[in-house]
Structure formats: C-alpha cells, structure tokens
Amino acid sequence: MKRRRQILYSSIAILVILVIIIALCNISVDRNAEGRTFSNINDVPTMQTALLLGTNPKTRDGKRPSSFYLARINATAELYKHGKFRQLIISGDRREGYDEPQTMRHDLIERGVPDSIIMMDGQGYRTLLSLRNSKQNFGIHDMIIISQKWHNERSIFLADKMNIKAVGYNADDVRHPRAIWTHIRELLARVKLFIDLYVTHREDFC
C-alpha cells in the first residue's frame, strides 16, 4: 500500500510539473507577441516581404479542403490586394506526391496574386525551418508572417531569436470541434519551441 501511494504521489507531482511547464511556455509566447499580431488588415504595417506558412490543403480524411488552409490563402490574397507586401515566400512541406507550396501558389494565383512576386520554399516542413530558410536562402530580415494567431505568436518568438523583425497577420481560426487536436498540438509545439531554442539549440544553424 505504501508503495502504491508513493507511485500515485510521484505521478501527480510529475503531472503538475508538466502542466506548469506547458503553461509557462505558452504564457511566454503569448506575451512576447503582444501588439505584433493583427486581425484588422488596416493595422498591418506595409513591408517588403510576407511569409505564408504552409499547412495541409485537405482535411484528415482527404475529402474536403482544410479550413485552416483556406483561411491562410484568403488572408494572403487580402493582404496583397491591400498593398501590404511586394514579394511573397510560400513555405511548406514538399515530398513525393505532396506539395504544399505548389498547391498554395496555384490557389493564390487564382485569387489574383501575381506569380512573378512568389518565391518557393519546399523545405519548410517545420516553422523553425521556414524562418531559417527565409533568412538564409532569401536574405529576409523583416516580414509579415501569415497564419492563424496562435501560429503567428510562436513564429514571432522564433523570429526574435533569429534577429528577424516580424509581425503577424492573423488568418481566421477554426473553432469546429474537430480542430481541437490542432490547438492541443499547438500547446505542445510551444514546449518543443523552448526545447529547440534552449536545450538542443536548434537556432544555432540560423
């Protein structure tokens, strides 16, 4: 019985510590981005470059367009029409039979974004890599990041660590119950962010 009690108390202590770590990581990311993510397009500063972060164009069953994806595409087209950027980097995952940047490029051209201003990054399968590639491969040091607010907040935290001046334009979020796992995954992604930056020092290659 004593052994069981010890295991129970240890498990509870570990769980509490994990919850505290997750909360602290998320609070830090939120506070860091205060005043630098915008939902009103009129508040977005005009900058030379915008970075569109990729996501799967389809829902998990592959039958319908992803609402997260469509929101990012629409937000990018809206920004362009309001003259908020002059060149666009599309960054996402590209592998055999799957090409986020090319799909986004096609949909943006259909919405009036000129192909001539688009640059492609097919190695952006992580947010950290999207930002690194923008700086290393395209020489970008300031940008408008386009994604959902929670993703923009994490991206801005990364950008700060890479000495990139960034703001975020918030695409519409998805509040459907099926999207809850995306939001839970984001909570954990913010913990991974701190591991990358302060434990494994993944920003060192930037």
Automatic annotation (TrEMBL):
It holds the Pfam family DUF218. Residues 67-171 form the DUF218 domain. GO terms for cellular component: plasma membrane. InterPro entries: Cell_Envelope_Assoc (IPR051599), DUF218 (IPR003848). This is SanA protein. It comes from Prevotella jejuni.
